[in-house]
Amino acid sequence: MGTDAHVVVVGNEKGGSGKTTLALHVAVGLLRLGFRVGCLDLDAHQASLTRILASRRAWGERLAAALPHPRVEAVAPSSLDSRAAALEEERDRLDCAVAGLAAVCDFVVIDCPGTDAPLSRLAHLHADTLLTPINDSPLDLDLIGRVDPLRRALVAPGPYAERVWEWRRERCRRHRAGLDWLVVRSRLRNDGGPALAADLVGPMAQVLGFRLITGLSERRAHRDLLLWGLTALDLDQPGLGLDQTEAQRAAHAEARALLAELWLPRVAGRL
């Protein structure tokens, strides 16, 4: 792996948590700061990140706008019948893909499927930074930690938190650097309602070893831009003709604040 490459894995074993949206914003944000970025899509079924980035390239070409683009690759699950042989093949495919991108990029962003798939588990072992988006839902919280509803207190780690602990131990065994785990509050509401995630997950952070940060709000500005593979960080791009509305400027500030909270190497100085 390239000595300067930092691997960001966006993982959560539940669908609909906002992984691909988060991966796109991180990749575009790093590109906008002048970094070389590679993206690895592990969701062979939906291929959402691959399709969104294809739309981004097509839209930029149509408008003759010099949009920055990451290198994009995909790794599909093995079709071998033997479970052991399939796992070995997937490991080799993933290692080669990550090493190839890391050799020419400053950052590699890996978008994992929303299932407990072997390929996803292997990807987590590459993570220097792990981003786990969660919605403000008890179902999402249950993956992180089991909560007593009466005492509103953590009683046991959730299945995903237990696996993060295993991945950390395995990385140490392989003499790799530590893993910075961030739980990202995703699709936040702007209606002033109670924030279940902040109330319950916040106290779990020190016990389970993660940082809780604020992600992207449920803004129409984010959703509309996503159709074209764009983000609020592209608002200043010449040739796109995007309106600078107050809502879009707020979305832009929110996306930049997210980048700052990730504490990725060499990012703070460029922000």
From TrEMBL:
<dbReference type="InterPro" id="IPR015223">
    <property type="entry name" value="MipZ"/>
</dbReference>
<dbReference type="InterPro" id="IPR050678">
    <property type="entry name" value="DNA_Partitioning_ATPase"/>
</dbReference>
<dbReference type="InterPro" id="IPR027417">
    <property type="entry name" value="P-loop_NTPase"/>
</dbReference>
<protein>
    <submittedName>
        <fullName>Division plane positioning ATPase MipZ</fullName>
    </submittedName>
</protein>
<dbReference type="Pfam" id="PF09140">
    <property type="entry name" value="MipZ"/>
</dbReference>
